[in-house]
Amino acid sequence: MALIKKKAEDAVLPEVLPTHVGFIMDGNGRWAKKRGLPRSLGHVEGAKNFKKIVDYCKNIGIKYISFYVFSTENWKRPKEEIDGILKLLREYLVDVQAHLGDGVRAVFLGDKSAYPEDIQKAMVKLEKDTAHHTKMTLLLACNYGGRDEIAHSARLIAEKVQSGELKPEDITEKTIADYLYTAGMPDVDLVIRPSGELRLSNYLIWQCAYAEYYFTNVLWPDFSTEELNKALIDYASRGRRFGGV
User: Fold this and answer.
1) Burial of 42 (0-12, 13-18, 19+ CB in 10 A)
2) pLDDT string in tens for the chain (245-residue length)
3) What domain count does the chain have?
4) Catalytic residue at 95?
5) How far, in Å, CA of 174 to CA of 183, rounded?
């Protein structure tokens, strides 16, 4: 495993980094509970850490990063907690371009229609305003579920078959991938999940078919750039054969 000194925080990192890193931001509520604080404050701290990790990934040259912001199942949470998450999302959509700077493209994965109209419009505007940026692509999974995404893709393909634009026998894995929210983007190379949970939780299940997984007991608000460096070094030590020898 070749190591090279990177400028970002003077960290020693692998010479070859993953193209696409996916983050399952988990443990905000537990972080707050351990400190006797409301769960909403855990999400506030998690949002601050999200910005730090995005900046760091941009600085060290990772081309695609995706974050599990809000799942289709998260609507089951208490209304107070959901309202707090929506408030943070609104605030982020206001200052996101100042935070990201030039060169970062933002893409939302999931069904926007479940959100209030002002949030939907802000999401669409951000995607449009950053569509030409090429330094890094930031994928934000909001009201997202992996199975729901595949079902959505299947419905779109079924419409093509029904209209005669596509024959059933011509449907391939690429066909399905072309109708996912991530169409045209690389699959995930490395999935990182803090908080000690050892599951994917319906996150990018198609795109993670050959991803490497990195789990840690550190809760998301405490997941530092040093912890990310550990994950990247661990990833570089693995042999990725994609079913080959």
Assistant:
1) buried
2) 555 545 455 568 988 899 999 999 999 989 999 999 998 899 999 999 999 999 999 999 999 999 999 888 889 888 888 988 898 899 888 887 676 777 899 999 999 999 999 999 999 999 999 999 999 999 999 999 999 999 999 999 999 999 999 999 999 999 999 999 999 999 999 999 999 999 999 999 999 999 999 999 999 999 999 999 999 999 999 876 655 54
3) 1
4) no
5) 9
Provide the whole-model pTM.
0.90
Catalytic residue among 74, 111, 187, 222: 74
CATH of the domain at 91: 3.40.1180.10
The residues with which 86 forms a beta bridge, in sequence order, are: none
Q: Is residue 155 part of a domain?
A: no
148 flagged as catalytic = no
Q: Is residue 164 a part of any domain in this protein? A: no
Residue 161 lies in a domain: no
Q: Tell me if 110 sits within 8 A of 69, measured CB to CB.
A: no
- Identify the active-site residue in 26, 143, 189, 229: 26
Report if residue 176 sits inside a domain: no
Domain of 191 in residue numbering reads as 18-146+187-236
